[in-house]
Amino acid sequence: MLTLRLLGLPPNNPQAKRACKLFLDEGFYTDGGINFFSYAWKYSEACVTSMILALLAYFRYPDERIHSVASYLVGQQMSDGGWNCESYKGATHSSFHTTLMVLEGLYEYEYLFPEKKKQITQVRERGHEFLLAHRLYKSHRTGKVFDAKMTSMPFPPRWKYDFIRALDYFRACGAPRDERMSDAIELLQMKQKKDGL
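Above: the chain sequence. Below: its structure as C-alpha cells.
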C-alpha cells in the first residue's frame, strides 16, 4: 500500500479503501494509535501509526478513528520537536526515521482536514525544525553525516529515512526554503550523472 501510494494510485481506489478498513479494524488500539502487535506490545508504535495515518488520509478513508490516530501522534512529539518510536524504551532523542514518517502522515491528515490546519501546522513546524537543525542528514553535535545510508536514494523507502525523501517532503508541503537544506540540495546535485539522470 505504501508503494502504491508513492506510485500515485488514485485516492478513490476501492481496493485501497478496503485495505484501509482492514488496517483500522485490525490495528486500532486502546491508546488511539495503531498496534498490530498487541500480543507483544502494550502500546502503539509511532512509525507504524504514521504510515497507516498517511494511507488513511491519502485514500480518503471515511472513519472517525482517523482523528484518534492523528491525536496519538501529536501526543508523542518529543521535547526536541521530533518523534522516536522507541520513546517507550527510554529514548530521549528523536529519530530521523520516525520524525519524517510522522510528518508525512500529519501532512496528509492536514490536507484532508483543513480545519485542523492551525494545530497540525504548529506541530509539523516543530518537526521541521528538528530535521533542519540536523541539516536533513547530519549530527547536530558534530556536523558529520549521521548514517551513510541516509545519503542514498532507495526506492521504495518503506520506513527508512534518506535525504531525498526529506527534500521531497519539504517540497510537497510547500515549506519555505531554508539555508539548512543546502547541504542536502548540493548532495543531490553531486549525484547527478553525465546523462542528466
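Helices lie at 2-6, 14-27, 46-58, 65-75, 96-112, 117-133, 163-172, 182-190.
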